[in-house]
Amino acid sequence: MSHDDVVLLTGYPSMLARSVCAEVLERDPRARVVAVVRSKFQEDAEASRAELPADRRRRLQFVEGDAAAIDLGLSGIELKALARDVTRIHHCAQVTYLGVDRATAEHLNVDGAFEILELARSCPRLECLVFHSTAHVSGDRDGVVYEEELRAGQSFRTVVEETKARAELVVRAAMDRVPIAVVRPSTIVGDSRTGEVDRFDGPYLLMLVVVTSPPDLALPLPGRGDEPLNLVPIDWVARAAVAIGRDPASRGRTFHLVDPHPPTARRVFELVAQAGGRRGPRGSIPTNLAKALLRAPGLDRIAKSPRAFLDTLSTPVTYDARNTAAALEALGIPPCPSFDSYVDRLVAHVKERVRRRRQTQRDEVEIVDPLV
Q1: Any domain includes 63
Q2: Which of 106, 208, 241, 319 is deepest in the core (most CB within 10 A)?
Q3: Using CA atoms, how far apart are residues 169 and 178, in angstroms rounded to an integer?
Q4: Domain check: are 130 and 271 in the same one?
Q5: How far apart are CA 36 and CA 44, in angstroms?
């Protein structure tokens, strides 16, 4: 490969990996991306590549493999070629669906961390392994959480939080031997420019409830709604992570990719309602009651994700981001945009997805879970 920068990317074609890929190819015209793609996602990956401009398509290569398998599921020849050429790694392969089973979460999140670290050790030209973690490794902690902290006696509310924390422990233990930067975004939502998102989960429960409710119905807010709800758009996360991965000063450090001035959950609900042409929230119901209602018969298919998300609405946590603020300022990257600057595009995308789904399923009597 004659390109200056050869970036190995896992997790393709998830939206996070696609966003990181697009950012790399756009910002560096000499960069080449090699994406590890599981066989069952090859067709989706090819469709995604076909949407890129011609020059960027030529600089995106796929290799069939599995980021959580031994040697990433690659042949010995493929592995040696990658190790020889790779200058940067973005490990985006992970499972974040809150209803995932433990075995799957452990395999993809923890085993995947071991495998990408093993590859990174064998790359003589490696400048940085960017490990995509999550701010939610803080579990049920409240108060201020600092970027360098991980083990602080916290409990975990979901298997995703637990396995992502274990994966980060594995990677951080190797920071003295491998050039690593850990990025921890808070709750990721769709693209701030287009509203696009690949899965309705977490805060999208609020959007779905709002846009599918009668326009004159004022819905109660689960919990008091006075705790911060830290949301970050996926395009900004990708831009920040790519810039951090290119900065030699980022090695050995951890970065919270968060909104420095997050709105409260109530304010998020109000903005979503306004963007959806609905009335704002009126009153509230206790979080425990809201979770109990989600255990009712007929709601079991969507209960896992909403119940876990409701826990985040009642956790008074603040993510310190001094590493991130200093790094992004030096790199010329703007801070996270405010939620009110792009909420209308998120809601418009949700409304359009709901409209298309209803149109194709008019004859179905059963309500289809839009979160699956």
Answers
A1: yes
A2: 241
A3: 14
A4: no
A5: 13
Using an 8 Å Cβ cutoff, are 259 and 188 in contact? no
Q: Are residues 162 and 130 in the same domain?
A: yes
What CA–CA distances, in Å, run from 353 to 129, 203, 349, 360, 363?
A: 35, 16, 6, 11, 17
Residue 39 CA to its chain's centroid (Å):
22
Residue whose pair of structure tokens reads 């298309």 in the numeric block: 356
The four Cα atoms 203, 207, 208, 213 give a dihedral, to 10 degrees, of 140
Structural domain of 276: 204-229+262-315+341-360
At 174, the amino acid letter reads: A
Distance from C-alpha of 372 to C-alpha of 100, rounded to nearest angstrom: 11
End-to-end CA distance of the chain: 40
- Please check whether residue 219 lies inside any domain of the structure: yes
What are the tens digits of pLDDT across the range 37-67?
A: 999 999 999 999 999 999 999 999 999 999 9
Per-residue confidence (pLDDT) for residue 197, from 0 to 100 = 93
User: Quick check: 366 pLDDT over 50?
Assistant: no
